[in-house]
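Usage

Read records sequentially. Each one opens with the input sequence:
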Amino acid sequence: MLLTCALRKSLSCFALAAVLGLSTGCQKEELLENQFASPVAIEGLTHGQPIEGQYIIVFKNNDTVVSEGKAGELSAVRTSALKIRQKLYDASGIEPADVSQVYEGVIKGFAARLTEEQLAAIRKRPEIAYVEQDRYVYLSKASKAIFTKFGNTKDNGNGKNKPAAPEEPTPTPTEPAPAEPEPTEPAPSEPTPAEPTTPKESAPAAPAYTTITPVAGEQVPWNIELVGYGDGTGKTVWVIDSGIDTDHPDLNVDLNRSLSLIYQNPSVEDGYGHGTSVAGIIAAKNNGSGIIGVAANATIVALRVFDDAGAGTLSRAINAVNHVGNNGKPGDVVNLSLGSGMSTTLDNAVKTAAAKGILFAIAAGNSAVDCYESSPARVDAPGVYTVSAMDNYLRLWERSNYGAAVDFAAPGVNVTVTTKGGGIGGGAFGTSMAAPHVAGVLLLRGTVFSQGTITGDKDNTPDPIASVK
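and closes with the structure output:
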């Protein structure tokens, strides 16, 4: 896709998208002029605040459903959606420069800046399922750099030095969600020995995982030790976040599949630090330096939706999940350490991708409220795991969201992480740091096991503690 756009730089990006229905690569060429307002340049805005005049438009799902592995069908869906979009642009007077995101495949539609007249016209169109207002989404700093560049540890992550209360901007909570999953997968039924032809399928047992011994010089922080770890070589995790430090010696980043959804900034480099910290918890290498991740050595694909100030939009997050739904494979894992308030579109994107066998680890949020009103934490679907944060005493972190939507708890207080600039740091906190522990477990096992439950759960149903076994 990127090569296609590179060969056509003389064309406008939007014109190319109109011919091929492939907008994402073109967005990376920085050729659209009047993009959505960047939250980094606006002070005094709050997490989840609506963006005035910016909307997410979703088409009715009335065209071909894409079958697994049939690229031609995806192309047909894109062509159909392209025709609908162009018809709407023409009928409503929407200019190419006002279109910020184009959704193809899993979710079909677009995000754009609209006048009140254009919005009213769009709402009346028979092709439209619904319209959502776009919102600002913000991240926190992930850690205090207590030690860096793989230097001597000043705090070994054992929880004795407790972090201060987080400064993390907190997602607004959301609607009732998943019933707690069983800690283990059901055992598969016996195949019929007399029938060698196509035995009846049954739920497969969780696969065994490859255990590893940390190489001399490797640090195993308390948070990783508690959850457990193994060899994630050959497995893929999609980290939808602020990008990744692609030169970090402890991370295995796939640059070919990584992508920035930030217009006029095609780089996936992490200028904020949050995504790099998330990635290390999931997949830091077992290489004799730095820390070990839960699924050590796994391949990380960075989908960047937050800028250098940790600011992003709901429409970007939706496009990132949509991208995974179109390009991910069954068994891949997605980490979503973000929240947006209630969003039907984001929820549906997650559910649709999960239905393809792609697994999700999602942060519950840091508002100390029930997350029944927080997307995507509220999603209740197979393969979707919402994660609360606990401390090293196995207690619910005081700022963690809770509720029926939460499936598991994982370490989220005073954890050790990889940091941008090639180092490691201690004192990270938040459900943003808890979710990647579960992402690592999902990479290794395809499901999540438990070793006991937390104390202090505010909904009176203690969350199981996530574990690889």
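Summary fields computed downstream for this record:
- The longest strand covers residues 128-138.
- The radius of gyration is 22 Å.
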